[in-house]
Amino acid sequence: MNELAVELRHIVKKFPGVVANKDVSLKARRGEVHALVGENGAGKSTVMKVLYGMQRPDAGEILVDGQQVRFRTPAEAIAAGIGMVHQHFMLADNFTVLENVILGSEPTKHGRIDTAAARARILEMAAAYGLDIDPDAMVENLGVGERQRVEILKVLYRGAKILIFDEPTAVLVPQEVDELFAALQGLRAEGLSVIFISHKLDEVLRVADNVTVLRHGQTVAEVAADSVTAQDLAELMVGAELPTAPPRSTVPHERVVLSLQGITVGGQGTRDLLHDVSFEIRAGEVVGIAGVEGNGQHELIDAIIGLAPCQGTIVYNGTDISRFSVARRRDSGMGLIPEDRQREALLMGSALWENRMLGHQRSAPVARHGVLQLKAVKADAAVIMREYDVRAPGPETPAHALSGGNQQKFIVGREMSRQPSLLLASHPTRGVDVGAQAAIWEELRKARDAGMAILLISADLEELMAMSDVIKVMLRGRISGTFDPQRTTLEQLGVAMTVASA
Amino acid sequence: MSRRFSPQSIALTLAAPLVAAVFGLGISSIALMITHNSPLETFRAMWDYGTQVGSLIEMVNLGAVYYIAALAVALTFKAGLFNIGVESQIRLGALFAAWIGAMFTLPPVLHVFVILVVASLVGAMWAFLPALLKVKRGVSEVISTIMLNSIGSALSAYLLADHFQQLVAGSNNVTTKPLPQSAWVPDLMSWLNRVGIKDVPGGGPYGLVFLAVALGFLYSFIVNRTRFGFDLRASGASPTAASVSGVNPKRMIILAMMLSGAFAGLAMMPVMLGESHAYTLGFRGGVGFTGIAIALLGRNNAVGIAFSSLLFGFLEVSARILELNGIATEIYIIMQGAILLSAVAAYEVVRRYRETLNARALARAGVTA
Amino acid sequence: MRLSKRVLTAAIAVTTVALAAPAAMAPANAKTTVKVGLAFDIGGRGDKSFNDSAYAGLVKAQKLLKVVTKTVSATAGGAATEREDKLRLLAQAGYNPIIAVGFLYADSVKKVATEFPKTRFAIIDDASIALPNVSSLVFAEEQGSYLAGVAAAKASKSGKIGYIGGVRIPLLQKFEAGFVAGVKATRKSATVDVKYVSEPPDFTGFADPAKAKVIAKGMTDAGADVIYSAAGGSGKGNFENATEASAAGKPVWTIGVDSDQYLTASAAEKKHMLTSMVKHVDVAVFDMISAFVKGKKVADNLGVGAGITGRRYNLKNNGVGLATSGGYLKKLKIAAAVNAAAAKIKTGVIKVPTVPAA
C-alpha cells in the first residue's frame, strides 16, 4: 500500500505581480493522510488548484498513479480520480442528501433517474467509509458536520481516489472535527489518499501521516508526522533564520498616542471575539501583534477604527474617542492599512486618483467645503506614485490593473500622506513581492523614526521581530503574552501562539 | 470614472452605443419582417416623421421627463441601490404638487418654485420609507419599492377621488383643481420663433426643459465633484471599502434614496406646469420604469442619460406615424428593448477591450511584478 | 403667425398623406369618399365590450355607407401628447370625421379640434368640450343600469345582489348608482354588494377576469345570486364563476354590460346570463358617420354648458337598454316590471341618480 498515488514535481505558478508557487513538490501515497501546511499566502491553495485543474501550472509536472497528466478543467481531474472537498459547501439546500450527491452525475434507467440504484450505492459507501448520513434528509436541515459528509460523499460518488480537503476544520466545532477525523481514517483504511490543507498544527499532527511544509511558495520540508513537534512545524513554516533588523537609531517617545482599556468585542456565541484587551502605543513605537489568524486581530483593528461596536475605553492623543464615528476617528489622524486591501482599502474599478480620496474624502487637500479638489487630488496621486514607486502608467489607471505590491505601495503612500500620528497596519506586506516588501518596511521605519505610533499585525514572524519594539501575542481574543523581540526566539513566540492553544 | 480624452478613448466611448443602435435596428427589422412589413420603409417613415420640427419638439419634451426620472434612478445605481419606486415617487410628487399648487396664487416664478419644492419633498418622503425599512429592518429596497409602487398608486387613487378632486360638468375625468396661471410655465415657442423656426401645432418645448438640464448639471456636480457624491459612489463600488473609509452606510442609504426621490418627484413637472395644469386620471404611468432602462443605457452618466432619453423620446414619437401605415406602434418598444440589451452586451465588449489596452499600457510602463 | 402655421400644417399633411398612402385603401374617387378616423381607448380592439362596440359601428358604416376607415389606438400609460398626436395625424391625413373613443381623449380632442376647425370630431363618454366642430356622444348608463337593477331584484331569491365595477371612476359609478337605485326601488330589503376590480390609475380592472372571478366568488359565497359586472373584459370572470357556482348547487344569474354579451358567451355561460345592459356605442358611432355623410351634424344641445352639443343616448332613443337574448326575462316573468320601469323613466316619472348615495 505504499505506491505513490499522486506526485507534484517542481510546480511553478505565477500571477501578475506575485509568484504564488515558486517550486512546490509533493508526494502522496495510497492509504495516506498527507497534510499540506504553511502560512497564509504560502501557496497551499494555489498548488491544490493546480492539482484540481482549476489553474494551469507555468512549469512542473503532475503524476497520477505514475502517469504524467495535464488537466485543463476540474472535470478532467475528477475523471482521473481527484476530488476536492471545498471549505465553503456547494450544496443545494432544498434538495435531499441523495439528490445532492447524484446531482450532475445521475444514474439513469430508461431515461429516468434510477433513485434506487443511487440510494444503494450511497448507503454502501457510507457504511464502507463510516460516513453516517440519512440519504433522504433535506440538506437545509443538516448541521455543518453533516453537510461536510455530504460533500465527501459527492466526491466519492464520482469515483475519487485522491481527496483534497481545503481547510476542512475551519468551519467545524471540536466534536465535528473528531467525527471528520474518524471519517478520514475510514478513507485511509480503504486505500484512498487524503490531502489535508491546514494551518492548525495540532490538528495536522493528530490526523496526518506525513506533512509537506510550504513557505513563500516553496516546499521546504516533507516530514513524518510522528517525528516532529508543533514547534518544529511552526519553525519550518515561518523560516528558522533570525530576523536581520537594523538596530534602530531612535527610541520611542514617552507620549502615549493610543491607549486601549478593557476593549471587549462580543461574538455570536458565548465567547468574546476580543476580551479585555488593554495596551498602549507611544509615539515612535511599533507594537507588533502575533497570533494565528482568527484570534481577534481583525476585531482589534475594527474596534480601534470604530467599525466594531465594543466595550472599554479608547483614548487617542488624550481624547476619549470611544463614541466617535469611523469618519471622525480617521479624520483625527488615524492611518489604516487594512488586512484585505482589495475589499477594504481600494475601489478596484476606479482610477488611482479616485482611490487617493478614499478614507481622506472629508479633509484637505481632497475636499474643501464638501467639494472635491480634483486637480489637487490628481496631482497628489501622481506624487504618491512617484515617491512610493507605484508602477502604473498614471493616476488614471484603475486600481485593479496594478499588481498586489503596487496596490499596497499606493495604499501605504496614501495613508502616509496625511502624516498620521497613528498607523494601523494589518499584514502590510502580505502577498507582496520582495522589492515592495523592503520598500514598505523602509517607509514604516522612517515614519516610526519621525514619531509615528504603529500597530503592526502580521502573520510573518520575521517581519514582526524585525519591525516591532514590543510584540504581543493574541490567542482567542486575549493578549496571551508580551515579548521583547530583542530577547525572544521564534520558538517562544510559536509556543505562545500555537502550543498553548492545544 | 473620467478618463483622458484621447481620440481612441472617445472612439471607444462612442463605439458601444453605436453598435447597440445598429444591432437594435437589426432585431427590429427581424420583428418587422416577421409581421410582413418592410423594415426599410418603416424606418424611413419613422425618420421622416420623427425629424419634423413638431416631432423633434415632442422628442425633447418626452426626453426631459425621462431624463429627470432616469437621473433619479441613476443616483441610486451609483450608490449600489435600486430604486424601482421612482414610478410612485413621481406620481405622488405630482399629485401633491397639483393639489397644493392650486390652493393659492403667488407671483409667477415664486409659485412655480413652491410647486417644485412640494413635488420634490413629497418624492423624497415617499423614498424615505423604503430607505428606513432597509436601514432598520434589512428589507431589500428592490422589494419594498415595488410594493410601495402599488401602495402609492392606490393612495393616489384614494386621495384624488375622495379629497383632491374637482368635478367638471359633462366630463368623466377626475381631476384636481386646475393650477392658477401664475403656476404655468410658458413653452419656448417664442424662442424658437426668434431663431427662425415657425409655430407648429402642439406647441413648443416645455419651459421646464431647463429644469431637466439644470438637474443634469446638478446630478453631475453632486456625483463627480462633491464629497457626498464620492461617498455615494464608493458605497456603490465597494460597501466594505466605503465603510472602512468612514462612510456611514445607513446614512448613505437614506440620503441616496431621499435625493433620488427628490429628483423623481420633479419628473412630471414639465408636463404638469407646461401643459396639463392639473393631475387627472390620465396622468401618465410608466415613466419611472422607462427611467430605469434609460439610466442603464446611459451608464448613469449625465450626458449618456441625456442622449438615451432623447433616443427613447425620438423612437416613441416617430413610431406614432406607424399606425397610419398599418404597422403596430409597439414596434418602438421592441426597438427600445433591443437597443438596451445590445448596449449592455456592447458595453461589456468595450470594457474588456479597455482592460486589454490597460494591460498593454502597464506592460509599456515597464511593470513586471 | 396664423398663416405660417397653416402653411406648415399643410406641408406636414402632404408628407403624411404620401406616407400613409400605400396602407390606406385608395379611394376610387377621392373627392366624394368619406374617410373616417377612429381612435380607440386604452385596451383597443378585442375587449368584447366597449371598444369592440365602437368598432362594430365603424364596420357597419364601412359596409352600408361605403366610407374608408382608419383606426389608431392609445398605448397603455402613454403620454397625453400621444393621443393628441394620433388625432392630429388623422386630421392632417384628411380623415374627417374623427371619432375618439373614451373620456381620456377630451383634452386632446379639444386641442386638435381647435387646430382643425373644418374637421368634424366626436368624443364618446365626454361632454365637456364647447366647440362647434365637436360632437359629444354620451350615454345614460344609469338608466339602463336601473333596469338591470329591477331585473336583478326580481330574479334574486336570496335578496343579495352583487355589482362588480371595472375601475372606480365616476363613469363606472354611474352604472353603480343606477343599478343600486333599480334594486332598491323594486325590493327594499335587498342588499347590493359593491366591489371594483381596481382603483385608478390602475386601469387593469377592465381586463382582469381572474381578479373579477375571485370577487364574484366572494359574493356568491356570501349568498349573492345575481351579479352585474360593468367591467369590460373582466366580466368573463363573473360569467365563469356563475357557471362553477351553479354547477356546485348555488344557482347564480349574471348581467353583462356594454355589448349584448350573451352573443359572445360560451354555451355554459349563456345558461346563467339573465341579460346585458347594452350601451350602444356602435349606434352612436354609426349615427355620427351617417349624419356626416348626409351633410348633417349630431349637435343636440346637451344642457351641460353653453356650446356643448352632441347626443345623449338613453332609454328613449334606444341608446341604452336591456338585451333580451336568451329570453330569460320573459321566462322568469320579469319583463313586465322592467318595461314598466322603462316607461316611467322615459316619461320622467322616475329620475335615476348618477352618483352613488354617500
Which class of the largest domain in chain C in CATH terms? Alpha Beta
What would the principal axes of the Cα set say about the shape of chain B?
A: globular
Beta-strand content bin of chain B: under 5%
What average pLDDT do the residues of chain C reach? 87
The CATH architecture of the largest domain in chain C can be named as 3-Layer(aba) Sandwich
Question: Secondary-structure element sequence of chain B?
Answer: HHHHHHEEHHHHHHHHH
Instruction: Tell me the CATH topology of the largest domain in chain C.
Output: Rossmann fold
Second rung of CATH, namely the architecture of chain B:
Orthogonal Bundle
Q: What is the radius of gyration of chain C?
A: 21 Å
Structural class of chain C: alpha/beta
Description:
The complex is a heterotrimer of chains A (502), B (369) and C (358). With 502 residues, chain A is α/β, with parallel strands linked by helices. Chain A has 17 helices and 24 strands. In chain A, a hairpin with a 2-residue loop joins β4 and β5. The longest helix of chain A is centred in the middle third of the chain and has 16 residues, at 174-189. Chain A starts with a strand and ends in a 5-residue tail after the last helix. Chain B is an all-alpha fold and 369 residues long. Chain B has one domain: ABC transporter involved in vitamin B12 uptake, BtuC (Orthogonal Bundle). Chain B is built from 15 helices and two strands. Helix content of chain C is 42%, strand content 20%. Chain C has twelve helices and 13 strands. Chain C is globular. Chain C has helices at residues 2-20, 50-65, 80-92, 106-115, 141-155, 170-186, 209-221, 235-247, 267-270, 281-293, 328-331, 335-347; strands spanning 35-40, 68-73, 98-101, 121-124, 134-139, 160-167, 191-198, 226-230, 253-258, 273-279, 300-301, 309-313, 320-322. Classes of the chains: A alpha/beta (502), B mainly alpha (369), C alpha/beta (358). At the B-C interface, α2, α3, α6 and α12 of B face α1, β2, α3 and α4 of C.
